[in-house]
């Protein structure tokens, strides 16, 4: 029985008068790929935002490897080992691909203000190490030849992949992927599928994947949680979730789902 | 007596700050940009008006009209030079472009009309003798300023409510992309916004000129105060700009009269910091939006 | 290494700077010293605006605080220059750090305007707090002696400025090519993503403000010693625009560019000394011109045309069309549900 990397306990979140999350409970085990799906407005991204510290919930707790992270700053949660990608490309446009990757190592590197300014040998040696790590991380996702290109020169699909690589390079315990398949062509989707499996098998990182591309989720995830209107309506292996009546109703509405099930 | 004098003086300058602020808000609502040259528009058209009225002897109303037209043209030109080519750029570039324009205008004014120590005096348009309105002592020019401001405001409201251009500008301000999709030429709207913003500054200048001395550095002072007023009112609110202007003008006048005249120059800083710390959306701006 | 490579050009400039006093008269030496002072200002401002993306207008104010503090500590408290000077720099640094706190909540235009208002307030203090600052007329500082070294003041001050500039230039070069430099650019290009990588926004914004404060304060102390005089005019809005022009002309996000930008602009300033109005027109036009046509400044031109001018160019890139500015940004993640 592997340990839980993430525990979400009785989480409630409201914006103004609008209740977005109403008692969410979640447990994600180490090495898992967890899918998080649900119709629009279900609260998926809000949940992600709470986990990574952008919002503070009214009630409930979130624990990363046992430690409570509610109320902490996003950057300090990140330093505890949480990575995240976003729906829109967040590569740093003023840097090259390689520099973006090295930025990903921020929390693992140590050179501070005075060392950076004065201690040339130490800075140089750390830079070399980071460069090497960055190159190998790029090689892992097959983007090594793009290293010296400015981030702006990459296609959308390439940016997505580099961003995932950048999130992984510091070896976080948990990575949140917010709709990584958005805007990807069928080819790229297949590549993403392969990449996600490769990450799970070779890196041992735990992933939570928000997606709307259902076949990707069903294919790659070990377990799927379904949110609807701020509540969990299903939680289990993909096959079970796919046929769950509540899930179908949530997506298709009561009428259509009755017809669907009758057929 | 002092109180009513200060009040009147404050209301008058407040009206002027309100006009400058209005210019800011118009441009900002339409384009999302703060025009750092707004103060220099004010200053430069004031100088032009001086040349027309004092040097060339053209009568006040004609000068007023010409100054408005000149201001409008100046605004449009600024849009073409310093906004349109870089409309998609980062904040730094957009700010520095209008700052550059501001300095070019200031330098031009200094070169054409004289050095830093030179102050240009506008002759009073109305009789300089104060008259009594009820219990309050009033200089007729102050009434002219208030009347002028009221007229401009009415024209404004009419523009936005009844003209097509006004409605297109509102649409653009609300959602530029959607406006483009329905066929509104947003780049022309931006030019119009800049032009209107500058024309309002011109109006304020011509109204102010008989009350104060003109000098090249006056632009920056009005810029800061106008901006403080706009922020106080809520940068996206037109009536807020005027309200903000009034408050800044009156508070400044009172502080100047009762505390010390030097305090008056400090007012923009105090207002801006207070607003940003206490109520960033300003008095009439949108209530703090929740991110859902 | 190519003959006109960046490193060679800089070494050549350094050599020229070292031997300059042998050929220069008092006036030339003064201008050269002024350039060194402005190089410091430009580098510090570039780190804040060009690298960390904080559009702040307070640099001239911190320059003034450095100058005033250095001068007043000597005149009012009788301190020696050698104690007052670092103290002035540290005071300016402290002010920079203090400004960074509201900067955490303000972005873009609002940051620009509140720092502008702050700068104006600082001017006001210089002008009106006469009991301390001597008001509009300014005040003289005690003559500076380099005893026991047998150097007269202009020469000694020049070499002191040169040494400081060199040290702080190298510091800045090293910094921007390190993890700290990358953190700055991350803050500039994507705050939310930067945080998700563990970059503490407050820490790095404070660092950027503090560094620019230190550089400006150091420049201020040197400046006060150069003139033996401190008055409010040296630290006004025009000053601020001058410094912005330097970093734009040199190239935002390029330390070497700041050196070039500062040098060029000071020389231009001196050439136009007689005509203040003309100065304003030229600098305003320079700003507009470079922003429109040469966003990368001289560095980008050099990088493109001169072989061997390699340098990581970290221009801020055009972003999405500007939304209406909000003073306080709740962290924005698009498509939230």
Plain-language structure description:
The complex is a heterotrimer of chains A (263), B (292) and C (337). Chain A is an alpha/beta fold and 263 residues long. Chain A has helices spanning 44-51, 74-79, 97-104, 113-118, 120-140, 156-168, 186-203, 214-220, 238-242, 245-262, and strands spanning 4-15, 18-29, 33-37, 59-64, 67-68, 82-85, 174-178, 206-210, 223-228, 231-236. Chain A is built from 10 helices and 10 strands. The longest helix of chain B is centred in the first third of the chain and has 30 residues, at 2-31. Chain B has 11 helices and 2 strands. Chain B is an all-alpha fold and 292 residues long. Chain C has 337 residues and is mostly helical. Chain C contains 14 helices and 2 strands, in the order H-H-H-H-H-H-E-H-H-H-H-E-H-H-H-H. The chains are: A alpha/beta (263), B mainly alpha (292), C mainly alpha (337).
Short descriptors:
heterotrimer, A: 263 residues, alpha/beta, six-stranded mixed sheet, four-stranded antiparallel sheet, 10 helices, 10 strands, 42% helix, globular, C: 337 residues, mainly alpha, two-stranded antiparallel sheet, 2 strands, disordered C terminus
Describe this structure in a few short sentences.
The complex is a heterotrimer of chains A (263), B (292) and C (337). By secondary structure, chain B is mainly α.
Query: What level of helicity do the residues of chain A show?
Result: 40-55%
H/E element order of chain C:
HHHHHHEHHHHEHHHH
Query: Count of helical segments of chain A?
Result: 10
Task: Please tell me what the overall shape of chain A is.
Answer: globular
Beta-strand fraction estimate of chain A: 15-25%
Give helix % range of chain C.
55-70%
Q: Tell me the strand order in the biggest sheet of chain A.
A: 6-7-8-3-9-10
Query: Strand order of the main beta sheet of chain C, please?
Result: 1-2
Please give the largest β-sheet of chain A: 6 strands, mixed
Distance between the termini of chain C: 55 Å
Low-pLDDT runs of chain C:
319-337
- Counting DSSP E segments of at least 2 residues, the number of strands of chain C comes to 2
Helix count from the secondary structure assignment of chain C: 14
Structural category of chain A: alpha/beta
* Overall geometric form of chain C: globular
Beta percentage of chain C is: under 5%
Largest sheet of chain C, if any? 2 strands, antiparallel
Q: For the terminal residues of chain A, how far apart are their CA atoms?
A: 40 Å
Unreliable runs of chain A: none
């Amino acid at each position: 029985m592997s340990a839980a990397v993430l525990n979400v306990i009785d989480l409630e979140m409201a914006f103004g008068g609008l209740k977005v999350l109403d008692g969410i409970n979640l447990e994600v085990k180490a090495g898992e790929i967890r899918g998080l799906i649900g119709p629009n407005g279900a609260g998926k991204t809000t949940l992600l935002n709470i986990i990574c510290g952008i919002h503070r919930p009214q009630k409930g707790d979130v624990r990363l490897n046992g430690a409570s992270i509610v109320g902490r700053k996003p950057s300090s949660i990140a330093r505890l080992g949480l990575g995240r990608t976003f729906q829109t490309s967040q590569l740093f446009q003023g840097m090259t691909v390689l520099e973006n990757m090295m930025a990903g190592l921020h929390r693992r590197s140590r050179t501070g203000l005075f060392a950076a300014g004065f201690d040339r040998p130490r800075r140089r040696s750390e830079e070399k190490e980071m460069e090497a790590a960055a190159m190998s991380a790029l090689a892992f996702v097959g983007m090594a030849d793009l290293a010296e290109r400015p981030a702006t020169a990459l296609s959308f699909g390439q940016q997505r992949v580099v961003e995932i690589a950048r999130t992984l390079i510091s070896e976080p315990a948990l990575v949140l992927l917010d709709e990584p398949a958005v805007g990807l062509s069928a080819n790229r989707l297949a590549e993403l599928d392969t990449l996600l499996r490769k990450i799970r098998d070779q890196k041992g990182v735990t992933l939570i994947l928000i997606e709307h591309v259902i076949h990707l989720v069903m294919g790659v995830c070990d377990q799927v949680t379904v949110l609807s209107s701020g509540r969990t309506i299903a939680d289990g292996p993909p096959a079970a979730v796919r046929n769950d009546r509540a899930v179908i109703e949530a997506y298709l509405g009561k009428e259509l789902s009755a017809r669907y099930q009758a057929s | 007596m002092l109180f009513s004098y200060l009040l009147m003086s404050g209301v008058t300058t407040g009206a002027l700050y309100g006009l400058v602020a209005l210019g800011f808000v118009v441009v900002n609502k339409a384009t999302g940009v703060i025009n750092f040259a707004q103060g220099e528009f004010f200053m430069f058209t004031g100088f032009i008006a001086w040349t027309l009225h004092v040097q060339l002897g053209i009568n006040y109303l004609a000068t007023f009209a010409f100054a408005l037209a000149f201001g409008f043209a100046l605004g449009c030109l600024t849009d073409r030079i310093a906004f349109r080519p870089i409309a998609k750029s980062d904040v730094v570039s957009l700010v520095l472009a209008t700052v550059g324009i501001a300095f070019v205008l200031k330098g031009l004014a200094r070169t054409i009309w004289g050095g830093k120590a030179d102050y240009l005096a506008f002759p009073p348009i109305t009789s300089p003798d104060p008259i009594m309105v009820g219990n309050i002592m009033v200089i007729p020019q102050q009434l002219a300023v208030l009347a002028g401001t009221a007229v401009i405001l009415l024209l404004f409201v009419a523009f936005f409510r009844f003209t097509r251009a006004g409605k297109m500008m509102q649409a653009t301000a609300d959602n530029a992309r959607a406006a483009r999709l329905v066929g509104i030429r947003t780049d022309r709207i931006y030019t119009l916004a800049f032009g209107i913003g500058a024309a309002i500054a011109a109006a304020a200048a011509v109204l102010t000129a008989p009350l104060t001395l003109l000098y090249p550095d006056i632009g920056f002072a009005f810029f800061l105060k106008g901006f403080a007023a706009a922020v106080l009112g809520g940068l996206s609110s037109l009536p807020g700009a005027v309200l903000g202007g009034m408050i800044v003008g009156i508070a400044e006048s009172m502080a100047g009269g009762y505390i010390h005249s030097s305090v008056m120059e400090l007012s923009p800083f105090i207002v801006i910091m207070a607003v940003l710390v206490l109520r960033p959306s300003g008095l009439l701006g949108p209530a703090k939006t929740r991110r859902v | 290494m190519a003959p006109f490579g960046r490193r060679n050009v800089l070494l050549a400039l350094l050599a020229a700077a070292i031997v300059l006093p042998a050929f220069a008269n008092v006036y030339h030496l003064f201008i050269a010293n002024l350039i060194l002072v402005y190089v410091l200002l430009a580098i510090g401002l570039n780190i804040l605006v060009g690298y960390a993306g904080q559009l702040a207008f307070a640099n001239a104010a911190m320059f003034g605080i450095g100058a005033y503090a250095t001068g007043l500590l000597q005149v009012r408290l009788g301190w020696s220059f050698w104690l007052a000077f670092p103290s002035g720099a540290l005071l300016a640094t402290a002010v920079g750090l203090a400004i960074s706190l509201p900067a955490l909540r303000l972005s873009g235009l609002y940051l620009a305007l509140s720092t502008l208002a702050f700068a104006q307030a600082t001017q006001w203090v210089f002008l009106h707090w006469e009991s301390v600052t001597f008001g509009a007329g300014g005040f003289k500082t005690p003559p500076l002696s380099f005893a026991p070294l047998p150097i007269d003041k202009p020469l000694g001050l020049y070499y002191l400025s040169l040494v400081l500039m060199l040290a702080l230039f190298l510091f800045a070069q090293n910094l921007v090519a390190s993890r700290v430099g990358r953190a700055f650019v991350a803050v500039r290009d994507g705050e939310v993503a930067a945080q998700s990588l563990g970059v503490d926004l407050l820490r790095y914004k404070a660092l950027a403000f503090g560094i620019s404060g230190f550089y400006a304060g150091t420049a201020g102390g040197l400046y006060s010693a150069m003139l033996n005089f401190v008055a409010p005019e040296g630290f006004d809005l025009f000053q601020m625009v001058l410094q912005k022009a330097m970093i734009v002309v040199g190239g935002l996000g390029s330390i070497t560019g700041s050196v070039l930008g500062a040098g060029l602009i000071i020389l231009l300033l001196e050439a136009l000394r007689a005509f203040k109005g003309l100065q304003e027109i030229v600098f305003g036009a320079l700003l507009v011109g470079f922003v429109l046509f040469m966003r990368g400044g001289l560095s980008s031109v050099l990088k493109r045309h001169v072989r061997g001018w390699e340098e990581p160019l970290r221009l801020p890139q055009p972003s999405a069309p500007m939304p209406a500015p909000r003073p306080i940004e709740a962290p924005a993640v698009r498509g939230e549900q």
